[in-house]
Design brief:
Blueprint: H1 2-22, H2 31-39, H3 42-53, H4 71-88, E1 93-102, E2 112-121, E3 126-136, H5 154-171, E4 178-185, H6 193-204, E5 208-215, E6 232-236, H7 246-255, H8 262-277, E7 282-286, H9 299-303, E8 308-312, E9 326-328, E10 331-333, H10 342-361, E11 370-372, E12 380-383, E13 392-401, E14 409-414, E15 418-421, E16 429-437, E17 449-451
Parallel strand pairs: 3-4, 3-5, 5-8, 6-7, 11-17
Antiparallel strand pairs: 1-2, 2-4, 6-8, 9-10, 11-12, 12-15, 13-14, 13-16
This protein binds zinc ion.
Zinc ion binds near residues 136, 156, 157, 216 and 217.
Length: about 450
């Protein structure tokens, strides 16, 4: 009896010690990333948005061969800008126009050439692993097929396009382990067509895209300058994967996981990174794939099994997006430049850039993470595949109460491929695993599936 009491006390003590050690170690920002974020310029973002607006109409159906007006002029300007950035970094970027013939579709009355303009910064040690950051450079008026109207699209989505160009400028001055793709797409307003093409090509080429960000309507529309949510950006992520299979759905219904898709882990990672670098301008995580009745370029990615999230301002002003520029009953409508807050765009750009830099320098997130269910017990065993990175330091187990929206605890477990959490029942917590390199860069979390 006495030995049982001692054993029980020892177990309590162990759990206590484990929890003390597991308290979130206070992370410090990386000095080089802090320096990079300071280089992101609201002034240059403003110049780029003004330039994009100057093309008058960037509807996907608009002119393609007029040098000053229409989507073709915008396409060629972005291409030239990426090339300029590349020559400033010793041709470190591969700049390309990804052109394809889009067949007739809902908002495409005739087969039309669409072009994504892409700049790729190849990774140094793990170039096959890819992170994509995107904005759409097409725009629209009240009608999605009006190719003649003025469609300045300053917020939707010159803001996101300018963010991507500015990231290419600042991030290309540095090197990363993995590859970063700076992407500007056409056809978003026609039904996510440019992003769908890229994502489908990525599947066919078996590209290892670990994460994708779309920046769409990140202008911080000035009519909401006094909103209490002003100093934040929404990050939308799906809870249940869009490509969930039937057996995966059965597992989820049985033991939970509806709040733990890979995209949601990515959103949590972005939130944690923002908390570290941007205490005054925050991430508001939105636990849904997108807004009611709306979509974005992350959707074709999540539908194909890639992790992807959407960045959008916290309050949208529908008088200043998807509107013909006009005054009606004394009220002004139109997505014009006066409603964009360039400092706001720069803040969103910084959160993107900090997250991308950390991800592209960290190891890949652990693959084939399993929670062992072969027998019933009050310990939790996790296992995963070994990563191949040469600078891999090891792994961390993270966990949280099942009702917690974010990870609350972590424990370093060394460079191993399985670990047993003693005295912690898999029935009572959610667990995950992330990889860490020798410099302390962490992947986002992999959520385990049950394995025998
Ligand atoms: Zn948009």
């Amino acid at each position: 009896m006495k030995s049982k009491i001692i054993a029980a006390l020892a177990l309590c003590f162990c759990v206590l010690v484990l929890n003390v050690f597991a308290q979130k170690s206070k992370e410090k920002p990386n000095a080089e990333i802090t320096k990079m974020l300071k280089e992101i310029s609201a002034k240059r973002i403003e110049t780029d948005i003004r330039k994009l607006v100057s093309f008058g109409n960037r509807n996907t159906l608009s002119e393609q061969d007029n040098p000053t007006r229409g989507i073709g002029a915008a396409r060629d300007w972005i291409f030239a800008e990426f090339n300029k950035i590349s020559s400033d970094c010793g041709n470190c970027l591969t700049v390309e126009k990804q052109t394809f013939l889009q067949p007739k579709a809902n908002r495409i009355p005739e087969p039309t050439n669409l072009t994504n303009v892409i700049a790729t910064l190849r990774g140094t040690t793990n170039p096959e692993r890819v992170y994509v950051v995107s904005g759409h450079y097409d725009s629209m008026c009240s009608s999605p097929t009006d190719a003649k109207c003025d469609a300045p699209g300053a917020n939707d989505d010159a803001s996101g396009t300018a963010a991507v160009i500015e990231m290419a400028r600042v991030m290309s001055k540095r090197k990363y382990d993995a590859t970063i793709v700076f992407m500007t797409v056409a056809g978003e307003e026609q039904g996510l067509l440019g992003a769908t093409y890229f994502a489908q090509q990525a599947v066919e080429k078996k590209m290892d895209i670990e994460a994708m960000f779309t920046n769409d309507i990140i202008g911080g529309v000035t009519t909401f300058k006094n909103s209490p949510d002003r100093n934040s950006v929404r990050v939308f992520s799906e809870g249940v994967p869009s490509n969930e299979t039937q057996p995966e759905g059965a597992t989820r219904r049985s033991v939970g996981g509806e709040n733990d898709s890979a995209s949601r882990q990515l959103a949590r990672f972005v939130k944690e990174t923002a908390d570290l670098y941007s205490p005054k301008f925050r991430v508001m995580m939105i636990y849904r794939r997108d807004r009611y009745g709306r979509g974005g370029d992350h959707i074709p990615f999540v539908e194909r099994g890639f992790s992807a999230v959407r960045f959008t301002e916290p309050n949208e002003d529908y008088d200043h997006q998807h509107q013909n520029v006009r005054t009606e009953n004394g009220k002004f409508y139109g997505d014009t430049i006066e409603y964009v807050d360039f400092e706001y765009v720069a803040n969103v750009t910084r959160i993107n850039a900090a997250s991308l830099a950390h991800l592209a320098n960290a190891p890949a997130r652990p693959k084939n993470v399993g929670i062992v269910t072969a027998r019933l017990g009050n310990d939790t065993e996790l296992k995963w595949d070994a990563g191949a990175e040469t600078d891999l330091a090891g792994y961390e187990i993270v966990w949280r109460d099942t009702v917690s929206p974010v990870w609350t605890n972590s424990q370093t477990v060394g460079n191993v491929t399985n670990f047993v959490m003693k005295g912690m029942s898999k029935d009572n917590y959610f667990f995950g695993v992330r990889a860490v390199d020798k410099a302390g860069n962490k992947s986002f979390v992999s959520f385990p599936r049950p394995v025998r």
